[in-house]
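We were asked to recover a plausible sequence for a given structure. The inputs and outputs are reproduced exactly as logged, with field labels preserved.

PROBLEM: sequence recovery
POSITIONS: 137
GIVEN STRUCTURE:
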């Protein structure tokens, strides 16, 4: 009995760890919006997302999505930014909590999937509000 309980607990932990970057367990509508990972995997409501795949100098962590639809997605996250002068130093990344995130401008790919092409980030640094808007491709 204890072994069976341990297996169930381990399976639950593994599934919950994997679920942060994968599709939610409920059936998604056919026109659901997606965001692509750096490996081109379609993600829905990821808790972690690298926004600059060439340098890994811009990322979202601990994302909580309040809306995820076919045309846009909104939520909050910790924005991670690495200084890149002259070379990106990911080890010295700065984080900005409570960053507002909007994914938008979906493009239909493979005839059916709507993939977000744009991100807008609003964050506060030293009491000042900043907005960063960029392409995801």
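RECOVERED SEQUENCE:
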């Amino acid at each position: 009995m204890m072994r069976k309980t341990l297996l169930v607990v381990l399976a639950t932990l593994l599934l919950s760890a994997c679920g942060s970057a994968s599709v939610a367990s409920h059936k998604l509508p056919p026109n659901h919006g997606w965001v692509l990972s750096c490996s081109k995997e379609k993600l829905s409501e990821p808790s972690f997302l690298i926004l600059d795949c060439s340098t890994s100098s811009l990322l979202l962590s601990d994302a909580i999505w309040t809306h995820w639809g076919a045309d846009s997605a909104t939520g909050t996250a910790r924005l991670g930014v690495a200084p890149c002068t002259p070379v990106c130093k990911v080890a010295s990344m700065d984080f900005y909590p409570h960053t507002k995130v909007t994914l938008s401008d979906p493009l239909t790919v493979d005839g059916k999937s709507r993939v977000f092409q744009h991100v807008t980030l609003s964050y506060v640094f030293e009491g000042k509000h900043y907005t960063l808007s960029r392409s995801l491709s």
